[in-house]
Amino acid sequence: MRQRDSRRWMLVVLCIAWGLWMFHLRDIPYGLHHDAMFNLVDTIEVLHGRLHLYFPANFGREPLFIYSTAGMARLWRADWIWVQRMTSVVWGMLGLASTYALMRRLVGPRAAGWGSALAAGSFWLLMVSRLGLRAITLLFFANLTAFALLKAAEPGQRRPLPWWSLAGAVGGLAQYTYLASRALFVLPAGLLLWAAWPRRPQGQPFWRRLAGPLLALGLMATLFLPLHITMSRATQPARLRELDAPLRMALAGRPLPLLNAMGETVSALFWRGPEAPSDYLYNLPGRPALSLPLTLAFALGLVSLLAKRESRRMMPWLAFLGLVGLLPDLLSSGGPLYLRGIMALPYLFALVGAGAAGLCAFTERFAGRPGRAAGVILALALLGWQYGESAHAYFRQWALAPQTLRIYNGDLRALADSAPSVEGARTFISTDFWLDLDQQTFQFLSAHPEGVEWFRIQHGVPLPAHGGALYWITLSTPMPAEWQEFFRYASQQYTLPGPDGHTPLAVGYLMNEAGVQAGASALELRPLEEPVTFGELLTLESAHAGQSGSEVILWSDWRVAGAGRPSAPAHIVAEMVGSDGHVWSRADIPLACAPQSWQEGDRCIQMIRLTMPGDMPPGHYMTRAYVYIDPDHPLAMRAGGNFLAAPPRAASVTVASPPAGSLPAAPYPVEPALAGRLVPLGRWEQWDKVYAGVPYLVHIRWKSAGDVETNRLRFVLRALADDGSVVWEGEAPAQNALPAAWPAGRTLRLAHRFTVGDADITGALPPVTLQICAEWNGAVDGCAGLGRAEWANPPRVWELAQAPAHSLQVQWP
């Protein structure tokens, strides 16, 4: 291919790529991913003059893409999402042009023309060039670094130092693009080792061979140093070593994670990509980087380059550069290949292009001009198939997939574009754990984000103090079945379809004031004896609890007590407690209703799931709840003018059937002191000192190794001296109601109350080892060792002639 023809060809390729990448740029992907939203937030910060060398939010991000987006915003002053994606397209065009220049250097103009054209139409480059993420900026700088190194190491190069300097400078700037750019340090380091190899033919003085790679490596390190220092101060050390975890495990003698990462990467290139639902983030699950026709062209290109003497000398360069480009994936995993492995794209498609060029040359050699025409037609057919298949996979299969619409917040985009508003009804949008991120994302998607309120449907529903409500349940947060009874009282229902016209992205329920009250009444909440106010912010007014499988669901009604707002997100802690005060289950969840839009008198119906452990016996339990903003300082509780010293009782619940939940690990181990049908598995209390005559309570998990009739079962406490003799033995009855028959294999957590000695014991007492033993028909049937403890006389108790008076009224629930 002549110089002029290659330029024309590349101009056509760039124009086609530009048209393909600009097609419905703002609308596909439909929505805005949280990662892109963080970049936009920082772009606005830059436009307001707040400049950073490293942006620490969202696990930390390099600055180059954010600053280039800010420059594009200054230039265009258009829609934020379009500006961000337009910036990505521009970087993609620069990357494609530099890819052609690098391919031309490696495999010649004809193979470079075919390779760059096939790369431009690939799903890989189409995806990365439109996302609005910083990885695309790395392609241009990595290509320019490799090109400069090739020029510097070219045989007969008279002035290599300028090229070494350019490689070091561009490689240093590449560190400000994306985390995977750290692999570029391997390029000058590898060339330095090659230059210093002692058995290498000595064509130049030793110091001259080392000067170029050392210069490039030094420049890269110098330019990277300010960013490295800033990153070290702004982010966690784990972020700096994110890419080498499998390598460090391999060096520690565990090579399997590294081998798995390498296997995943090779499979993701040629055979089959990862298939997790989360892979819709950057790919279609299971889709490899190179389809079967491209893989065959890759193999043909490899053979054709090895067959020619003049191209064979470039194969070490192709292998070295390609491995460095894949290094971030080989050391971590092949999941995010399209981002972390972006540097390898030119070398993979260089071989694919060599295969297409080799096909044309092969047919021309055996059939002359007709064969050449046939080869060109086959290569053009491959090119057309590549563009058509990639466009269909991207614009139809990937962009319209429900998983993609969910990941990229397509539901929020649909609400921003076409959600109706109803006069007299406040609008609430459901979200999940990422409530703050969804709020910020909606501000970029909607022209009028004000007036919209947010809630977490998994945890609760807000009720306005006056008027009706329009609740939007989004695709990202499907409605739990427990809320269906509440929304049955909606007077009207809306559905917002996705861009395909079929996938429902959001469902709206319009409820008038009477419907809201009727829906709340359907939940059967019971008023508390006295409402409890927490920190003058929220008042707990009613609650209800009931068993649902292996869970207890606690419904609670919270009313906004005043016009104040919490200084930080509020959390509700709910506990399920036995009659002895033992906490069997605990849940800590954020408040379902966003406090930014609180109005005095608003209510929030909170649904809290308390998972019952598998060793929890049937019986009567109490639920209680409290609120905190600072985890170390729960909000003050007040009921009827009195402050409460403990969390208030919310509702009682009867566990009728044994739960089928998992068994949480016990905080303290036990040692089976004597084998039997009852085997101890763990305990929840521990003492270093026990006092004679003072009652203690210990919870022990027992597992039955055989059927046991509990009417003949009793538990005793034994205190053993160092020589194994029993110095005290007393009753340690189970406080729980035991089943009549304890079947083999069943696990129960029993509460045992005991004392060690009488209160009137005098004299020095020896240290003891405590055991609780199960006896059946008078014979020991298993013992649990509670450890060694100091045994002491009970402390003196002084009795006052008159009780102290105080003014603080405290109520103990």
Commentary on this structure:
With 813 residues, the protein is α+β, with helices and mostly antiparallel strands. The chain has four domains: 22-403, no CATH class; 411-519; 530-655, Immunoglobulin-like; 671-792, Immunoglobulin-like (Sandwich). Helices cover 40% and strands 23% of the residues. It is built from 23 helices and 29 strands. The strands form six sheets. An eight-stranded mixed beta sheet has the order 3-12-9-8-7-15-16-29, with helices on one face. Strands 18, 20, 23, 24, 27 and 28 form a six-stranded mixed beta sheet that branches. α14 packs antiparallel against α18. The chain is globular and about 110 Å long. The model has no long low-confidence stretch (mean pLDDT 85).
**Helical content, roughly?**
25-40%
Q: What's the total count of β strands?
A: 29
- Major sheet: size, sense and barrel closure? 8 strands, mixed
What is the residue-mean pLDDT, rounded to a whole number?
A: 85
Sheet-strand content, in percent, reads 15-25%
Topology:
Elements: H1 3-22, H2 34-47, H3 64-76, H4 80-107, H5 109-120, H6 123-128, H7 136-152, H8 160-174, H9 186-196, H10 206-234, H11 237-240, H12 245-251, H13 256-270, H14 292-307, H15 309-312, H16 315-330, H17 337-340, H18 345-398, H19 402-407, H20 410-418, E1 425-431, H21 435-445, E2 452-456, E3 460-463, E4 468-474, H22 484-487, E5 492-497, E6 504-511, H23 513-521, E7 526-534, E8 538-548, E9 551-560, E10 571-577, E11 583-590, E12 603-611, E13 619-630, E14 633-634, E15 637-639, E16 642-644, E17 649-655, E18 671-674, E19 678-683, E20 689-691, E21 696-704, E22 708-709, E23 713-720, E24 726-731, E25 741-742, E26 747-754, E27 768-776, E28 779-792, E29 810-811
Parallel strand pairs: 1-2, 1-4, 16-29, 20-28
Antiparallel strand pairs: 3-12, 4-6, 5-6, 7-8, 7-15, 8-9, 9-12, 10-11, 10-13, 13-14, 13-17, 15-16, 18-28, 19-21, 21-26, 22-25, 23-24, 23-27, 27-28
